[in-house]
User: Which sequence fits this backbone?
């Protein structure tokens, strides 16, 4: 399965608790699209959140975020990693 990094903007001031809540919302519905969210990072100062997932497609990643209530602004394939 391919990996994807998605980016959310406009989440200025997000806390660790808020990030975990959003991540749990993704985990609750990820199976419906064959996606697995592996990890999430946030920069509260800029309001940027990053999520790493394994998924069949970028569209599947976006559908999970839509269902969880926080649409990604960008979804990027990660074809090479170490």
Assistant:
């Amino acid at each position: 399965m391919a990996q994807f990094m998605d980016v959310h903007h406009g989440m200025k001031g997000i806390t660790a608790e808020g990030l975990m809540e959003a991540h749990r919302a993704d985990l609750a519905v990820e199976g419906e699209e064959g996606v697995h969210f592996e990890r999430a990072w946030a920069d509260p100062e800029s309001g940027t959140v990053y999520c790493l997932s394994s998924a069949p497609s970028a569209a599947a990643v976006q559908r999970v975020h839509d269902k969880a209530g926080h649409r990604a602004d960008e979804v990027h394939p990660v074809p090479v990693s170490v």
